[in-house]
Amino acid sequence: PDETQRLLLFLRRVDRIAIFDRQRLVAEVSRKTSPSKSPGGPGHLHMTLRSATGAKRTQSWLRFTGKTEREPMRTPDGRPEKDQTVQVAVPDTDITDQEIAGVFAGRLYNYLPTEIRTGLPFQINGDFYPSTDRKSIDNDRYHHQLWHSAVLEAIGDCFVQAIPYLLERFREHPEQFYRRLPITASTALAEPIVEA
Questions:
Q1: Are 84 and 158 in contact (CB under 8 A)?
Q2: Cβ contacts of residue 16 below 8 Å, gap of 6+?
Q3: In this structure, what are the phi and psi dihedrals at residue 61, rounded to the nearest 5 degrees?
Q4: Confidence of residue 1 (pLDDT cuts 50, 70, 90)
Q5: Which end of the chain is more exposed for a tag (fewer CB within 10 A), N or C?
């Protein structure tokens, strides 16, 4: 249940997850997505968490999308091994600083959250090569390392492209804007994003 709030940020075809314990609802999260209203602008995610007591809370996220410059490797039948799409989900004004530092502390996603804590004040997603347990990413092969570097660079570029929109969005709350900037990273993997 602690991870429930995070699960739907980047999944493509799932909009609701309910967790039960012996037929008793423990937690439920649902997502409504509104597409971008302007070119380069974010999609808006509205995540509603319902607890076992029935209490509901809706939180909003701004999801920006970019693309890697590097082409992925191809399978023997010619299809790309990986998707070039990258995404950055930035908490909107209704998510508190305590939540950003706590339950929503930055994580690296491979559609679902990994155990990699980025130290960033937002969530990042790319089609990484996962470790066998899906808790991390696999950097054991050279072409995996090259792909992961391209994905992380594209995520950094995606965030840079988001800054003008975020400046306008948080115009009346500049302190919230600054708290969403990637000042430091807690893992070397996120350094290309901070450097962008």
A1: no
A2: 8, 28, 29, 30, 31
A3: -130, 150
A4: low
A5: N
pLDDT in tens, 9-31: 999 999 999 999 999 999 999 99
CA distances from 118 to 33, 128, 152 (A): 25, 15, 12
Residue 150 exposed, middle or buried by CB count within 10 Å (0-12, 13-18, 19+): buried
- Residue in the block written with tokens 């339950």: 103
Residues 115-134, mean pLDDT to the nearest whole number: 93
SS (H, E, C) 64-76: EEEECCCCCCECC
Predicted pLDDT at 119: 87
Q: Edge-to-edge strands of the sheet including 85-91?
A: 16-21, 24-34, 43-51, 56-67, 85-91, 123-125, 107-110, 112-117
In the three-class reduction of DSSP (H, G, I as helix; E, B as strand; rest coil), residue 100 is classed as: helix
Measure the N-to-C terminal CA separation of the chain; round to a whole number of Å. Answer: 34
